[in-house]
Amino acid sequence: MEQTLSQKMETQISDKLADAFESVIRAKNDYYQNNPQAIPQKSTIDSLIKSVALTNSAISGGSSLIPGPWGMLAVVPELILVIRNQIALIYDIGAANGKKDLMSKELTLMVFISAMGTGVGSLLTVKGGTYLVRRASLQVSQKLVALLGGKITQQAIKSSISKWIPGIGAVAMAAWTNYLTRQIGNKAKELFASKIEFEDNIEDVELIKPLDESIIKLGSNEKSNDFYKIKVLTRLMNIDGKVTDEELAFVTSLIENSDIPAEDKITLTSGIMCSDRTLDGLDSVAASPEDSIALLADLTALAKSDSQFHVTEKLYIKQIGKLLNFSETDIEEVLAS
C-alpha cells in the first residue's frame, strides 16, 4: 500500500530521531566533561534561547522548498538539523541549572514532547513544585520517539499552508521554527529551574491521536481552518489599500495549493480583492496551537512579501495575534524573525 504524505514524513523523521537524541547528548556529555568551563551560566539562558531560535530560523528560511505539499519531504534534513539544535538547547539549559548529570535521552524526550503541547502520561508530573520523572524502559523509550515523530509530523503538515511557496514559504517556515524553538527553550527553562526527582517504577505513555488525514485531503464538506486562515490573509492583503503583485501571487498560490474543496477555493478566489472585515472561524483557529502559529507565520510572510512592512499591516497582525492568544512578546518575536 502506498504511504501517505504524513506516513512518509513520520517514517523519515522517526528513523532519525533516536540517533539525534543519543548522539547530541553523548557529544554534549563528552564536550562538557573535557571543557567544564564552557558550561553555560544560568544568567545566559534567555540569550541562549534567542540565539538558537535565530539559528533555526536561518536554517528553515534557507530551505529549498519544492512546490506542492509533497515538497515538505525535501526539508526533512533541515528539520532534523533544527531538532538537533533544539535537543542541544534543552541539554544546555539543564547544564546551566546544575543538572548536567541528570540529562538523559528519556528526560530530554519528555521535555521536548511536553513543550510541543503533548502529555507524556505519568512519566513526567508536577507535585508541589517538584517534577517527578519515572524512568522509561527501552520499549517505552521507543514509544516516546514514535510519539515525538508523530507530533512533529502533525505540526509540520498542519502548519504548512504556505511553506511550499518558493521564497515566501521559507519566510513562514522560519517564523514557525523560531516560535517552536523558543517554546522548547522556555519549557526547559521552567522545568530545570525546579527540583527534579526520579522514580524507578516504569510507566507506560499515552499516545497522541493519529494524524487527521483530512488536513491533506480534498472533498471535506465543512470549512477547514485553512479556509479561515486564507480569509484572514486576504484581509491583510487589502488592509493598506494597495495590493501588490507579490501579495496577490502569495494569496493566489495559497488558494491553489491548499487542500480545501473546490467550491471553497472559488469562494476565496472571488473575494480575493474584497476588504471584508469579518473574522469568521478565528476561534476555531485559535483552538489549534499548530494552526495559530501557522497563521501568525503566514501573516508575517505575506506582509513582508513586497519588502514593505506597512504600519497598518503590523497593527493588524498584532490584533490577530492577540485574538489567537499569543503574548505580545511572542508576536514581536515572530514579526522580527
Describe this structure in words.
With 337 residues, the chain is mainly alpha-helical. It folds into 2 domains: 5-199, no CATH class; 218-336, TerB-like. It is built from 13 helices and 3 strands. The chain has a 3-stranded mixed sheet, with no helix packed on it. Strand 1 and strand 2 (130-134) form a beta hairpin. It starts with a helix and ends with a helix.
Helices and strands, with pairings:
Elements: H1 5-34, H2 45-61, H3 76-96, H4 105-115, E1 124-127, E2 130-134, H5 138-158, H6 168-192, E3 195-199, H7 225-238, H8 245-257, H9 262-270, H10 282-286, H11 289-304, H12 311-323, H13 328-336
Parallel strand pairs: 2-3
Antiparallel strand pairs: 1-2
Helix pairs in contact: 1-3, 1-5, 2-3, 2-6, 3-4, 3-6, 4-5, 4-6, 6-11, 6-13, 7-8, 7-11, 11-12, 12-13
What descriptors fit this protein?
337 residues, mainly alpha, TerB-like, 2 domains, 3-stranded mixed beta sheet, 61% helix, elongated
- How many beta-strand segments? 3
- Tally of individual domains: 2
- Calculate the mean pLDDT score and round it: 78
Spatial strand order of the main sheet: 1-2-3
Overall morphology: elongated
Which spans of ≥5 residues are poorly predicted at pLDDT below 50? 207-221
Helices, by number, come to 13
Q: Whole-number radius of gyration?
A: 21 Å
Report how far the terminal alpha carbons are from each other. Answer: 41 Å
Largest sheet, in brief, is: 3 strands, mixed
Counting helices, strands and paired strands, the structural category is: mainly alpha
